[in-house]
Amino acid sequence: MLSILARTMAKDLWYKVKPCGRLVRPVAPTRIPGRYLSHQEGLPKLPVPALQQTCERYLATLEPIVDEEELNHTKELLAEFQKAGGVGERLQKGLERRARKTENWLSDWWLTTAYLDYRMPVVVHSSPGVVLPRLEFSDRQGQMRFAAKLIAGVLDFKTMIDNETLPVEYLGGKQLCMNQYYQILSSWRVPGLKRDSVNHAHRSRPPTHITVVHNFQFFVLDVYNSDGTPLTVDQLYMQLEKVWSSSLQTNKEPIGILTSNQRNSWGKAYNNLIKDKTNKDSVRAIQKSIFTVCLDAPMPCVSDDLYRSRAAVQMLHGGGSRWNSGNRWFDKTLQFIIGEDGSCGLMYEHAPAEGPPIVSLIDHVVEYTKKSEMVRTPMVPLPMPQKLRFNITPEIKKDIEKAKQNMNIMVHDLDVKVIVFSHFGKNVPKTHKMSPDAFIQMGLQLAYYRMYQRCCATYESASLRMFKLGRTDTIRSCSIDSANFVKAMDDPAKQNIEKVTLLEKAVKAHRAYTDMAIHGQAIDRHLLGLKLQAIEDLTSMPEIFMDTSYAVANHYNLSTSQVPAKTDCVMCFGPVAPDGYGVCYNPMAEHINFAVSAFNSCNETNAAHMAERLEQALLDMRMLLESTPKAKL
Predict the structure, then answer these.
(1) How many structural domains compose the chain?
(2) 305: domain range?
């Protein structure tokens, strides 16, 4: 059975929930219906690629990462799979029928298989963090003042969502699906014993409060006046001061750390937690808030060159039970984090959206915080923010202690290195008429090859937002052409002009695969669809999905994503394989922000070493281009 969100995503953007139950409810902001839906109706449906095309392209992606014997075996399996009247053709027809009947044949399946069925903790393993430029607060009031401006900036962005006046985004002259923007506010994930769900506040009763958490204690803060206007920055500041003063008591149980646990364990603890009515009401208030603001205590001091890496782990997991990991509700879609020491950023639960809508929100909010406030604050008394109470039974206390232990294990295992590659940015690849993203990806391929003397399956996220309800497909950055380039780069027998030719070919191949992916013609989601169709049809699993090659192809030693922003920030996430790396980057005009992650429990990986190799690879590639006559033509 698919989740509530998956089943009803196409019918309604918002879901029915009970009102928050507070005595005084401000008037919700008005909505201008229709614009969003009329835009969505004009978008094309996600296509189902041709079966033979996918099989051929699948073989090509396997060539650099599996041995010849395994490749030959896979060729035989694919030949059998594609036979006229065979299982592949039958599954393909089933997918095509599904595509005709649904708005998007993939979106429900993808949400469920990629997120809601995933039982690892969302912390580190799923939810990304974003590190914003460091702020200088002269005192605690500086933290509160910035938090107030940030909240006002998010509410300003929310007005565009409510009024459906967000500017439609384009790629290659084509309109993009804006659905994800309507999923990121007033939404939350709910743990289940075997599968999670994602819920949204109902559009006719949108919430008017946010959650603020400080010193592990949660508060409901109404952010709209009784006439429906948002609170001013001054009003928000005064309310945050009240929160801070009301949360000074120590020895509070960090109830939020429960949300960091393995999903089945958290699902069981969640059912136990909400048996108590007070607890249930408090949990509902957090879930139904527009977003959460985490006012963090200072993290351990580090040198300036290590600050960004320390801030990254603060955004990803809070630093452990001794620090800020209990100052979170990890199931909330959006959590903005403002530390007393000037660290600033956010983390988001990945199920409702990818990075680009989050980054657009960040860009808007950062610009908003730079404005001077000219709004006159109404002289009206504001209600005290409502502190949320929790009754902690011995069983809940035991669950909290277990979650603390598990969180601390994750914290010690995650290795993150954030670097600012200051030598060049998008400018250099563009000078040589190369895609900056493809150039960076070839740098990653070269760095990995130099470390391990082999190529590996590489995931890069490609947006499918040209299509209605589109999410992502995979750009497979490791190709025959990239393998030829990285093997030649350090080969003294190869002339530089040949190396340049191979680099140009690899960059063009990556660009071509990217175009193929964003137009719905990549292989990974199609293969997943065929596999899920077999499960739905209750047929035996085709051998191509039990093949060693398929396991190798889906073991991503490099999981990567380009998340460009106007703001000088960087997104970060954990590896998807125990012996892999997570690499996210934001290419600016003259520098590139990189976040590289790995697990300390794997002796073969090291985030700092990979970051060093990546820097050197990019420098060597620039040197190759600039020192070779052909590159200057």
Answers:
(1) 3
(2) 4-30+140-413
